[in-house]
């Protein structure tokens, strides 16, 4: 079973984390992927200062990945465990140039880190809507770390979402194709092995 560590930065704390953990476990379990999800820090981390780009007036995701790498290594060393994926949460406007607008990103190199910001997700959202948007976006970015690409089915969390409208139309469940790619038992057919 994979261990996903959550690192909250900025003002993301409290019930929103508890709900995200519960909802994410359920969403991935429906796809046949059992995850252990835990918060890696005792309190929210300060925003990584180096991540802020004065010219862009946004935070670059690499700074968050570097901070997350340090925290992950430290927790692994202290507790003698291995963390498979890290999900960073934040409340500031993030970018990954050349992509300047996104609700979340994931690192394409190591497929280890995913990041989601509530900065745009919380605009005009009730508590329930924000909760739903957050779990769908987290599933999308974590899905990328598991090798999933964008999905053509607009109802699937792996479909592209230029705005929150598209996110709100998604289900909290991967489509059959993505489920098959994701599930612990079903890789072969799609990976061509
Ligand atoms: Zn994507
Ligand atoms: Zn899909």
Task: Return the average pLDDT rounded to an integer.
Answer: 93
Global geometry: globular
* Overall tally of structural domains: 1
The low-confidence parts are none
- Give me the strand/helix succession: EHEEEHEEEEHHHHH
Bound molecules: zinc ion
In spatial order, strands of the major sheet run 2-1-5-8-7
The level of helicity is 25-40%
Q: How many helices does DSSP assign?
A: 7
Count all strands and give the number. Answer: 8
Characterize the biggest β-sheet: 5 strands, mixed
Radius of gyration: 16 Å
Structural class: alpha/beta
Under CATH, the topology is which? Collagenase (Catalytic Domain)
CATH superfamily: Collagenase (Catalytic Domain)
Description:
With 193 residues, the chain is of the alpha/beta class. The protein has one domain: Collagenase (Catalytic Domain) (3-Layer(aba) Sandwich). Helix content is 39%, strand content 17%. The protein is built from 7 helices and 8 strands; from the N terminus they run E-H-E-E-E-H-E-E-E-E-H-H-H-H-H. The strands form 2 sheets. The protein has a 5-stranded mixed beta sheet, with helices on both faces. It has a 3-stranded mixed beta sheet with strand order 3-4-6. A hairpin with a 6-residue loop joins strand 7 and strand 8. Helix 1 crosses helix 4 (127-145). It binds zinc ion (ZN) (2 copies).
Protein topology:
Blueprint: E1 2-8, H1 15-30, E2 35-39, E3 52-53, E4 58-60, H2 61-79, E5 85-90, E6 94-95, E7 104-106, E8 113-117, H3 118-121, H4 127-145, H5 164-169, H6 176-182, H7 188-191
Parallel strand pairs: 1-2, 1-5, 4-6, 5-8
Antiparallel strand pairs: 3-4, 7-8
Bound molecules: zinc ion (ZN) (2 copies).
The site of one zinc ion (ZN) has 3 residues, from α4.
């Amino acid at each position: 079973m994979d261990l996903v560590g959550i690192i909250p930065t900025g003002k993301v704390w409290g019930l929103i984390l508890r709900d995200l953990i519960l909802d994410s476990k359920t969403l991935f379990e429906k796809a046949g992927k059992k995850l252990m999800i835990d918060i890696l820090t005792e309190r929210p981390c300060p925003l990584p200062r180096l991540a802020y780009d004065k010219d862009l007036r946004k935070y670059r995701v690499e700074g968050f990945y570097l901070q997350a790498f340090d925290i992950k290594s430290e927790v692994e060393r202290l507790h003698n465990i291995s963390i498979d994926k890290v999900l960073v949460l934040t409340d500031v406007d993030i970018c990954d140039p050349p992509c300047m607008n996104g609700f979340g990103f994931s690192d394409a190199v190591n497929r280890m880190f995913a990041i989601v910001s509530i900065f745009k997700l919380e605009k005009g959202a009730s508590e329930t809507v924000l909760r739903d948007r957050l779990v769908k976006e987290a599933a999308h970015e974590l899905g990328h770390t598991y090798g999933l690409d964008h999905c053509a089915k607009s109802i699937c969390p792996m479909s592209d979402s230029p705005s929150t409208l598209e996110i709100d139309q998604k289900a909290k469940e991967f489509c059959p194709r993505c489920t098959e790619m994701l599930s612990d038992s079903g890789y072969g057919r799609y990976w061509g092995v």
